[in-house]
Structures are given as structure tokens and as C-alpha cells.
Amino acid sequence: MNKFSYFNRQKIATDLQTTEFDLLIIGGGITGAGIALDAASRGMKVALIEKNDFASGTSSKSTKLIHGGLRYLKQFDFWLVKEVGTERAIVHKLAPHLVVPEKMILPLIDGGTYGSWLTSIGLKVYDILASVEGEDKRKMLDKEEALQQEPLLPENILNGAGYYAEYRTDDARLTIEVLKTALDYDAKILSYTEATEFIYKEDRVVGAKVKDTISGDKFAIKAKYVVNAAGPWVDELRQINHSKIGKRLHLTKGVHLVVAHEKLPIKQSVYFDVPDGRMMFAIPRGRVTYFGTTDTNYQKDKDHVEANLVDATYLISAVNNMFPDINISLDDVQSSWAGLRPLIHEEGKSASELSRKDEIFVSDTELISIAGGKLTGYRKMAERIVDLVGKKYERRFEKEFDEIKTKEIILSGGTFKNSSEVRSYIDAIHNRIAEVDFDEKDAEYLVHNYGKQTDIILQKFDDLMHDNMQEKMIIAEVWFTIHHEMACTPTDFFMRRTGRLFFDANSIKVYKKLVFSEFQKYFSWDDKTVEKHQKELEEKLKTATTFE
């Protein structure tokens, strides 16, 4: 049985109860996933639990860019630019199907944030700090060149543009693939398992009591060290540990909207000014374009974060302002998402001024917590945590672990040398599925989601007896995500395994009945359970498609 199958949950739960781990990680977002892979690949016995689905918090709600932090130049945070800029290239190498080069245009406009000189110097510094090479190096475009590159830009106030490279990703998919890679090093990983209290021995945290919210089982997990990587919920766990003192989290909300690509038909990504002095992204992706983000303080329910009418109006007005030939209305919005940034509070600073650096807190009882940080920097954040745990372990238990290896560990599904190999594979997949009514966008979706695991899905597809080809592919995807990616609910499938809730919300209405029947078949759900999961999906759909 596959290690990451839903049907392996009971065995994993047993392993969690019968093993003393070197490290227990609480939180299954990108930070926790990165720590699990780093620690397990160095030889530590690792357990990771997540109270909901993997990547269900911040790690499925970002701008979905692995980017080098151009905005940090503005804040003169050169160290951060260098680190995240270098990390972009590394993460791209580890999963080139999932971390995809994306040309970015930065329009220079009258009264804008960046003038020509500052942009030219800034992007040059950016190239040097981030060790950017070849085609990805920045270019400065004059007005005519900028309009040629992106005809939708506002001609009357446009002075030129910076042209540089970033990387687009799917944050939830990246989290899943990092977790799956950690399994190759024998990490024990379980979703829908909530830490309810800590276990102490001689005034040290040595594990946690947990509850499997699917089975209802309660059990204890013992570990020599515990890391709290719960993102927006970090302070709740610090509170349970009675160590929420000194620095604390400052949560800000970021919202993104999705429209059909023909409504905002940009040729490539644009990083542009908003009249209030902030900057925003607009990014084409498959058959849609998405744009964001807001940056507002947030103090409401962390488990139910929603985009409201004010957020949507702000983003739509910003896009219409930058692209005068475009007239997007609320009715054009297909979907949205709202996520929380767990930043570190600094007195007197606004939401957009707060540092994106990560920080580590160690309590008197040796609970290790990490907060802040960026998607791009997940590997370095993991390195800092595991280095710290390694030093503590050596002092207390006189045992050393290996040096970091994650710079070289290819992520699950990503055995490609470079982007051109990914392109060749997409073409091969397209040729394979074109004869059964799928187009190039379908091939790109499969490969950017699953990499070479697409072969496993297509093998299942070929084996199925079903007349409707689109439905047949969905059935194959559902089977794969349940048996290879621990999808436990239809919402897991639509939201975090496939991204359909964000980028193809209409398809949910078409296929939800089919998907529910597949889950019901595999899990033998009774009507009450089906109803519960239907209600969950409808709520998520409503949140993503309506604004109050």
C-alpha cells in the first residue's frame, strides 16, 4: 500500500503511538513540510501532524509566486533579497514542473512607486544578489517596447518598464510534494490530527496529546523535541504551552480574485502600482487571470477567512485603474481566496510595513515555535529550525545528525533536468491525450500539478471503463489523490489537490456529484457523512464566489 494513501491512516496512527520520535512537528503547511523533509533526510525520526488538511491555512492562499522579493529592496532589506532570490533558483531546480519561470513586467508610470533610475538600479542589484543568470536577467524597456510586450498598459501615463523573471507555483501542490518526499526518508505524517495539549517531563515538552478528527481516536505522540509550525495558529499553541510572552503574531489578510483570461487578457504577469501607494500582481494562469493582493489587519476567526465586498472592490478598482481598456465588474469574478500572513508584530508599523522575516521562539520548556517568513524561503526556514534542534540534541543526547541535504533532493514528481524537459513532457502528454478530446491546456494542467506522476494517472485513466472522457479523467485524479496524496474529502480534492475551487470553480458544479460518488464508493460513507461533506464544499464554494 502507498505510504501516503488514505487507507494507510490507521497504520500511520499506530506508528505515531508506538515510536519515540526525535522531532514532532505540529503544522502541515509549507513550513512544517519543509522541516519534516530537512530533518528526516538528515537522519532524524520525524512525525508531523496537521489539524485539518495539509496546506489548508496560509499555504494554499498565497499569491502562488516563488519570488525574489523586489519589494524588500525598497525597504533596503538586502539580506532578505539575497536569500529569497537565491532560493527561487534552488526550488525551481528541485521541481521545475511545479515552479515555473514567469516573465514579470513592472510598468514605470507617472507618479509611480518606481522611477526609471531606481528600477534599473534596483533590478540590477536584484540580479546580483539573487545570482540571476542568462535569459532571466532584467531588461529595461522604453515605452514602445513595454506596450509591445503588454498592450493593455496605460499609454498616457506609461514611461517604460522593467522586465524580469519570477516563478509561478501552486503553493498547496508544493506543500504536498515536499511532504511526499519526506515520506521517502521515513517521516510519519498524518492530517486531520489535532494537538490538544503538550506532554511534559522534567519541565520539558516531550510530545503532545492528539485527536484524530476523522476516527475520533485520541492518543499521545512522544518526541525528544517539538516544533510548533502552525502558521496563524502559532500563538494558540504557545498559549497552551503558557509561553505566549514577548513577541507575538500580527495577522494580516491577503485577498486574490480570479477572472476569465479574456476579461483580463494580459500576455504575462504584471507587478503594478495601486493609487494608494501599494503594489499588486496580475498573473495569467491557464484559462484565467488572477490578481491581488490586499494587506489589511485581521483579528477575526482564523478558521473562516473570507474576502468581503470592500476587498473585492479595492482589487477591481486597482486593476481597472492600471488597465484602462479593461472594465472588470464584480459579476466577472469567478472565484477568490483570502489567506492570513502570520507576521511578527512591531509597534507603530502598518500591515504592509511589517517585516516578512521569520523568527524562532524557544520557550522555557523547550517548545520551539517558528512564525513569519515567506513561501519562497521555506527551505531556509527549515534549515534554521533543524540546525537548532540538531545542536540541542547533540548537547543533551550526545548524538549528531547529518548536514543539510535539501538543496539536492528532487521533489516528488519532479525528475526533470530543466524547463525545456518539462515542455517536452507536456507535449508528449498532449499527444497522448489529444486523441481523446483533451487540449494543450489540459496537458499543462496535469503536468504542472503532478509532474511525471501524470503517467500513473493516465495509466488509471486507460484502465477505467467510462464513456465520458472528461469524467473519466476526474475519476482517475480522484483515485490518485486518495491513494497517493491522502485526500480525505471532496474539498481536499477540489481545493488543495487540484486547485479547481480557485482556478476552475465552474467545473465543481459539473463534477461534484461524480466526485462525491467516488469518495462514497472508496470510503463507504453513509448519507449523513455525505451530507456533512457536501455542506463543507458548498460553504467553501460560497465563500469563494460571493462577497458580503
Q: Layout of helices and strands, plus pairs?
A:
Layout: H1 9-18, E1 20-26, H2 30-41, E2 46-49, E3 65-66, H3 70-74, H4 78-94, E4 100-109, H5 116-129, E5 139-142, H6 143-149, E6 158-168, H7 171-183, E7 188-190, E8 193-201, E9 204-212, E10 218-228, H8 234-240, E11 249-260, E12 269-273, E13 279-285, E14 288-292, E15 296-297, H9 309-322, E16 333-344, E17 358-362, E18 367-372, H10 378-397, H11 419-434, H12 440-450, H13 454-463, H14 469-484, H15 490-497, H16 500-503, H17 505-523, H18 527-545
Parallel strand pairs: 1-2, 1-10, 2-7, 4-12, 10-18
Antiparallel strand pairs: 3-6, 4-6, 5-6, 8-9, 9-10, 11-14, 11-15, 11-16, 12-13, 13-14, 17-18
Helix pairs in contact: 2-7, 2-10, 4-5, 11-12, 13-14, 14-17
Look at the structure and name the CATH superfamily of the largest domain: D-Amino Acid Oxidase, subunit A, domain 2
Percentage of residues assigned to helices? 40-55%
C-alpha-based Rg, rounded: 23 Å
- The CATH class of the largest domain is identified as Alpha Beta
Counted up, domains total 3
Distance between the termini: 45 Å
The second-level CATH architecture of the largest domain is 2-Layer Sandwich
The strand count comes to: 18
Poorly predicted runs: none
Discrete helix count: 18
